[in-house]
Amino acid sequence: SIAIAIFFAAQAGRMGEALLWVLIMVAIALVAITIINYEQGTGNREQGAGNREQGIEKKSNIEPSKGSPLTPLNKGGTRTSLIKGGTRASLNQGGKEQGIEKKSNIEPSQGLLVELRKEVSSSFTLDAKFTANGKPLGILGASGSGKSMTLRCIAGLATPTQGRIVLNGRVLFDSKQGINLPPHQRRIGFVFQNYALFPHMNVAENIGFGLQELPKPQRNKRVWKYIELMHLQGLEKRYPHEISGGQQQRVALARAMAIAPEALLLDEPLSALDTYLRNQIEMLLTEVFYTYQGATLFVTHKLEEAYRVCGNLLVLSEGNVIGYDSKEAIFEHPPTFRVAQLTECKNFSRVEIIDDQKIQALDWNCSLSVVEPIRKSLAYVGIRAHHLRFLKEPNHNNTFPCWLVTMSETQHRVTLYLSLYTPSRNPQQYHLQAEVFKEKWHQIKAWPEPWYVQLDALRLILMES
Length: 465
What we know:
By secondary structure, this protein is an alpha+beta fold. The protein has helices at 2-11, 15-54, 147-155, 203-207, 216-229, 245-258, 275-291, 303-309, 327-332, 337-342, 438-444, and strands at residues 82-83, 86-87, 112-121, 124-132, 137-141, 162-167, 170-174, 179-180, 188-191, 263-267, 295-299, 312-317, 320-326, 347-355, 358-361, 366-369, 380-383, 389-391, 399-409, 413-420, 432-437, 451-454, 461-463. It has a six-stranded mixed beta sheet, with helices on both faces.
């Protein structure tokens, strides 16, 4: 109730009232801690006296953890974690923990390993297996595909039904071993879609929220470092409602980076921004990712964002990983029809195989020569809209007469909807979409119809169902 009172007071701008509630909450906490410590001290003294009377010396089997709640680096660069009273064994060169068999074929000493299954509801189960190391990994998928839930499981904000999550050799979650580190021990920075800044804290306090274990001079130095990195100078005393959306997103990113995380998770960090701010933050992210040494996961539903920011792509559909490769491979050679759809391919046709170098595109009513090997499981052919070429003459491979059905335009590009072989008067009946820059459109619109469109064999995408 007190937390809710603080939130609404801060939202209304009544900072004096919010501060009063904070002081009350701190006072209650201090009184409770004092009482608990007194009771525990009395009990311990009584127990110690009883032991001495019996002449028995009792020793604890658990060595208490000292210092920071975050597990420190040892000399070898790995981390040890105190779990269930014992110290987690580090991975040896054979890929095994001391006395524990390796649970995965891939057990990286550096980077992030994710093998998780999360039964979200009776109709939806998330099943994701992947690794992330070095290049930022973009996670693509439609709404409800499991992107955000994947990040929440990695960060410890949601618990998988089963599986294993390992970060730089530290086991964060293992359902078989009963390991499930709390979020504050995982050393993971999380940037939420809605920023999730504390409304009663100013910019500097938000950035330093996860640094309470540091001495004040060191904490202030770390906070100022990220104020400068995120270009927030002059805003450090302002509250979230006093700064813009782009500035709030920079504060959220600074807060996530300030704790020196081993992994950085970003859940659609650009979706709430307008185009200008989105471009600014995207450039900032590119700069940050270039120097950041940890694993990075960047969730988005926009291919262009992921392609510009990330080196590798993971494609999710209905809770399953359906594509996982470099961004070039996913874009140029999507393995399935659904991956091609999610990576914004506009042109598809069912196919029949004619021979080992030719197919019949059933929905386009044309035969096509191909250069890729034709698999028996081939089900679709596709081509991206900007890969279609317009020619003045038909004497070229995979070139067909076409008529313009309708068109749409943006400030820089024009989308042309084309009918092959015969004109069409119905704007819903077309075979292909082509995208051209306006300069090209000004050229070809003066040509007499039919135009000739080429489906370059090197650009054709052969897909399974």
